[in-house]
Amino acid sequence: MAEKFNPAAHDKHAEDPREAQKADRETHEKLEAGLVDTFPASDPVSAAQPAPSKVDREQENPSLWNKVLAVFR
């Protein structure tokens, strides 16, 4: 089917609606998979992840001293 004429100028910085729908669909699929994997459960699935704790950050970026100690373990 032919597209309708749109007299508005094309906005090259606007987000492509097809890409936005694709991202929304992927997010929905991830949440749905998480819901199925946790059923039955008392806590709902969360789309947001908590910020890493101090311990997590230290494990991701170990200090030079921890790297040296790891060699001898």
- Poorly predicted regions are none
The computed structural class is: mainly alpha
Distance between the termini: 68 Å
Q: Which bin fits the share of residues in helices?
A: 40-55%
Rounded mean pLDDT is: 76
According to DSSP, the number of beta strands is: 0
What are the secondary-structure elements, in order, as H or E?
A: HHH
- C-alpha geometry: elongated
Our count of helices gives 3
Quaternary structure type: single chain
| Domains, number | 1
Main sheet overview:
none
Biased composition (Basic and acidic residues): 1-32
Region (Disordered): 1-61
SSE layout and pairing:
Elements lengths: L16 H22 L15 H7 L3 H8 L2
3D architecture notes:
0% of the residues are buried. This protein is mainly alpha-helical. It has one domain. The termini are far apart. Helices cover 51% and strands 0% of the residues. The radius of gyration is 23 Å and the shape is elongated. The longest helix is centred in the middle third of the chain and has 22 residues.
In short:
This protein is 51% helix and 0% strand.
Overview features:
73 residues, mainly alpha, 3 helices, elongated
